[in-house]
Amino acid sequence: MALPPPDPQFVLRGTSAAVHTLHFSCGGPEPDIPLLFSGSENGLIHVWNLKTHRVDTALDGHGRKSVCCVETMGGKDRLLSQGRDQRICLWDLAEGRTSVTDSVFTEHVGFCRCSLLKVAQGRWLMAMAARSLEEVQILELPSKTSVCTLKPEVGAKLGMPMCLKLWQLNCDSQPVLLAGYEDGSVVLWNVSMGKVLSQLICHQEPVMSLDFDAEKAKGISGSSEKVLSIWSLNEQQNLQVYKTHELVNAGISDITIRPDKKILATAGWDHRIRIFGWKKLKPLAVLDYHTASVHCVSFSDHSNPRERLLAAGSKDQRISVWSIYAQT
Amino acid sequence: VCFIPGGLDCSISFVSHVLGKVCVHGRQKEILGVLVPHLTDLTKSDCIWQRICWRLVECVPDRWMEAVVLGFVQGAPGADVLSRLLGNLVVKNKKAQFVVTQKMLLLQYGHTTAVLQNLLGYLSLDSLRRPLLLRVLQELLETWSSSSAVKHSPAEQQLYISKAILICLSHLKEPEIESCRQELLTSMMEGVKCHLDSSLPQLRRLGMVVAESISLKINTEGPVLKFEYEEDDETRELKSLLVQAPPFCVVPSLPDDDRSEKAGAALPLVPESAEKPHTAAPEMPDEELEAELDSDDDLTPYDMPEERELKVKAPVYIRDCIEVLTGSQSEDVDKWEATVKALESLVRKNPAATREVSVELAKILLHLEEKTCIEGFVELRQRAQVAVLTTDPIPVAKYLTSQFYSLNYSLRQRMDILDVLVLAAQELSCPKFHEKAKHSGAQKPCIQLLPGSDSSKDWRRIVDERIKSKTRRFNTGQSRVELAPHPNEFNSVAGHFFFPLIQHFDRPLTTFDLLGEDHLVLGRLVHTLAILMYLAVNTVAVTAMGKALLEFVWALRFHTDSYVRQGLLSCISSLLLSVPTERMLADMTEELLETQSWLGDVLEKDPDGDCRRLALQNLLLMENLKKKLEAVPS
């Protein structure tokens, strides 16, 4: 007997603008307060206290231009935010400060979210869409030195990069970048050599979002059409389509796989959040709460599995937080 | 007549005389039917026979030359045969040249395409004759590009000239095209302008096809002129003329080779596919094992309802629709789309609410432009307009007809107004249950000749009624379902549709001059009036409408545009069919007589075939009416 889908555990209101990006920071030990960072269309980054469900701080660093990406860099004291004012800001939030310590001028006018990967203690690689239409630039942070620029070959006609994911199999292996482009293809780049390892056309429309499971070498991408595409990476570093899943309503804004790789969540333009099992893409639940297009989904990084949460931000200016499949 | 080959030095001028005389008396087919095949065979390889044949035709006296040449051109099975038979006759003989280059191409237009191919192919086959080909092409192009020719010559002649131009083009070689490229370009530009100006779609298409072909020939590299038009048999035939078919068809010996190659290719495939099942089989048990190991089933799915497509809700009230369409919230394009799709049914379901805001709705719809890409936007808008007009006819008709004559509307909008009026009139005048599927663009109704069938139906009805009144019925059998009578809704509003349209046609505005440039809209207006007249049968206003229409037609009867004339003639037909005969005779006798003489004139002298046909139908209708009146005992 199937249960009806759960209601959100709580709903965060108060951003007064569409929510474009979410990031949890709950991994710290007690008495650290679990936090949720949200970036909105009015340029503000809200720091939500998940115990009181209220905004602790609001950060204004992007000149009222929409914030499209927030990530923490090793703990909740250092925050990276990307805005449509063509800047990526690095924040220092320790001890109640709210200052921008550094910024990178990306000159990118699109919507591509940057991707962070920790390569060593205190060193990160960041992939971001660069000024020129089809290029992706890899920077090392915090030094801001350019590692390489990934340029597709002339005539490839990939269009803008739409979504990026930097990953490495383990600490010793080479970092690689998965990039989804406007023409619907996903490209695997070797970062150190700046070369294309593999390219796969997954969709007919632009790839809106992708996520990758490094252990199983399997990834999933969503687009503005009705198809979710699951692809795998074989030993020769080649991408192959593994499976596709057809949806009823077109348009996926965001896809994210839970850190334990058991389930994944998709944020849809049809106002719904869908949960699937990662192993076989079995549809598990349809969470119908929002009244406008859902822009982002994010899983929390709680160390206690029972406290794990899923947050979704939508155009209707609300963030819904769900506790789903937390027992497994 | 058989020729005896020999080494005799004979004079064949006698034979030429005989041939000429026979041809001029009209017996070309018989004599040339025998002569031409013989000569074809004999001249195939024998030079002497060729020269004999040439002498034969050269010696035909001038007064009979035309008949002989015509006969040969029509009778020859191909251009090369014609070339062998006539030789350089056209170069040597002035009369023959005139016949071939001028008379058959420019003054006559009844010959078939094959004859044209013969003629022009003949001109192209010899270097002495090629200059004639070029001259012919120039003259044809001059005719094709002259605007008076396009306006006044019959469609069949224009088709003939177009075909001739295309065949000429197909024969031209590169250096020749180079030499006359400039002239070709100029004539093409002028000609295409005249053709596109015409109101008849067939002429427009002809112009487009020929212009495209000319452009293809003169621009071998670079962009080529391309028009959008519907392909049909005529255009396909025309385009096929541009390509020269080779004189011999080489029988391809390739199919055999192909088949053997394919057979060879099939063989290596078979062992491959046989291998595949082997490799597939061991994979299967592995997959099954994996499935069993999958302990993903600890995640129980929640109840997921049947997925529905996300639909934007259309507004339910008419006033809401008005708000959405006037774009106060221009952001919500989904809602706008949903409103446009739902509007017609909403209007029809809420007649009372519509009547309150009918003129405003009509105004919005007239100015509504396509905001997003909806399929069938034009039809949706038109159907909504028709719905509004039929729900509240009088004020909306008043609005629309006044806008027809206002400043600052595009021609397309004015023609849309006419279409909407016609569709609404059709709907109002038809009985309700009879609702046929509304297709946009109602064309004029077919005018059928009813030779006396009206009167036959009448007497039957009278007899039936008499019988019914005089017999007692004991048992009524199953009664047929009879069409319930319904008040004719068009009755009260016909005048409102008709008279405002006819009022201001001779008053030009700055942007709109019906009697001047905008003769296309005038043509459409005339056709619309004809349909409204036809639909007004059995209404009270029909006689007044008829009288006004007759005056209107009289004023415009000499218009130069054939589309307008066709419209005027269909107005007369509608009039004759709709206005009751008694009223016609009582009020309009003199005008009818004048119209009859005009119709006779049109029948004899009008260059357009359709106009003549319509005039004939109208005269027959008038005859029938006269007979009907004479038949009824006064």
How can the largest sheet of chain B be summarized? Answer: none
- Shape label of chain B: extended
Counting DSSP H or I runs of 4 or more residues, the number of helices of chain B is 30
Instruction: Work out the helicity level of chain B.
Output: 55-70%
Number of strands of chain A: 28
The CATH class assignment of the domain at 489-633 in chain B is Mainly Alpha
Average predicted local confidence, pLDDT of chain B: 77
The biggest sheet of chain A amounts to: 4 strands, antiparallel
Largest chain interface and its two residue counts? A-B, 21 and 14 residues
Q: In terms of per-residue confidence, which ranges of chain B show pLDDT below 50 for 5 or more consecutive residues?
A: 246-294, 434-456
Q: Indicate the proportion of strand residues of chain B.
A: under 5%
Q: What is the CATH third-level topology name of the domain at 489-633 in chain B?
A: Leucine-rich Repeat Variant
H and E order of chain B: HHHHHHHHHHHHHHHHHHHHHHHHHHHHHH
Topology (SSEs and partners):
The complex is a heterodimer of chains A (328) and B (634).
Chain A: E1 10-12, E2 19-25, E3 35-40, E4 44-49, E5 54-60, E6 67-72, E7 78-83, E8 87-92, E9 99-105, E10 115-120, E11 123-129, E12 136-141, E13 145-150, E14 161-167, E15 176-181, E16 185-190, E17 195-201, E18 207-213, E19 218-223, E20 227-233, E21 239-246, E22 252-257, E23 263-268, E24 273-277, E25 283-287, E26 294-299, E27 310-314, E28 319-322
Chain B: H1 13-24, H2 28-43, H3 47-58, H4 62-75, H5 79-86, H6 89-92, H7 94-107, H8 113-124, H9 130-145, H10 147-152, H11 155-171, H12 174-179, H13 181-197, H14 201-218, H15 233-241, H16 254-293, H17 318-325, H18 333-349, H19 351-356, H20 358-367, H21 377-391, H22 393-404, H23 411-429, H24 453-470, H25 490-503, H26 519-535, H27 542-556, H28 562-578, H29 581-605, H30 609-631
WD repeats (chain A): 200-241, 287-328
Organism (chain A): Mohoua ochrocephala
Keywords (chain A): Repeat, WD repeat
